[in-house]
Amino acid sequence: MRQREEWFVFSAVFVAFFVLNFFTVMGQVALAACPSFSRLIQNGSYGVSDNNGKIISSCNADKAFVPASILKIPTALTAFSILGPDFRFKTNFYLDEQNDLYIQGFGDPLLISEEIKDIFAELKHRGVGEINSIFVDNSSFALEHQVPGSEFSDNPYDAPVGPIAVNFNSIPVRVTKKRRVVSGEQQTPYIELMAEVADNFLPGSYRINICRDFCNADQQMARYTTQLFRAMQHKAGIPGQGDTGIKKIPADAVLVYVHYSSKNLQYLVSSMLKYSSNFIANLVYLACGAEEFGYPATWQKAHKAMRQVLIRKLGKKTAGAIVQEEGAGLSRNNRLTARAMLSVLKVFKPRASLLRKHFGCLTKSGSMKGIYNYAGYLPNGKAYVIMLNQARNTRGTILKQMKKGEYAKTIH
Q: Which of 35, 57, 99, 275 is the most buried (most CB within 10 A)?
């Protein structure tokens, strides 16, 4: 009996020893994959390339990971190629015989209150003395769905996109101590929609996505646009009242003004990259597809346009390593390899200054829960990418070591 007990204890110890050694060895194998950063990368990749674009150090360079917002760099590269740095979004304004105003937009991301004020000044200058009904013609977009990856939260980064989108499709509000809702910024007048979106909010200042909780995006965008235009119309001293909503431009309406955004694509992309604006990124992305294949804008046209540009600039194999559902990096179905990102950075280098400095490096970050990525240029001009799809956020430590040149000078 005692021999059986001793044998049982011996067997248990042997099994435990085997299992412990097995997982230790497997852990060493996993860590050996990225020797330069063995304690920092559990599930991810990195790469560094020289000033000629040759990779001098990498790990898992051909394994695809979720890119998050570093995907905005390929989007920017495509936009400059298709639209050009001086491209400006336009918005058309029509009046019919009843002095009803029709707004036809093409996705201007910066149709903000300050621009709308200038629009009404120009309409007055052109002799528009009365505006009755205000309608939105949204026929320039035919989106198959709203932005992939959107969580339809209160947050502005989840705001929907469309052909007419005022103030980033987010509403600035302030809730007073007495729970009264007022406009959250001086240049934007109060409208009814503010009280609706801020219902039950505690006192404070907010910027709220107009379309939380899976609302009808087209209708909500039209409501926001027409309410804001009506308030700005009266503020400009132009009389008139009437209906609001979505309606196609009638045959008898006359084009009275074409408004071009005061900011060009160079400015837009700089803002998109520095502030990681999902809203700007996806409207620029959709504009690329429409410019190449005609309006109405669709996601499919945007995908096709971007792929053509990337194939032309990077080659078919490298372009195939970039998989995206939208232009901002919101979707977790997007995929990107470190090798492909380094190829993008090589071509994008003349516009490197559009990126923000982080730890002294020109950098675009990409962050979601469990996603911690960086891509950009080290102070010596070398392109780098860090893609971590893991629980621990160690990208800052990795970047600091890269900056010091602490990485293996071999390709893994």
A: 57
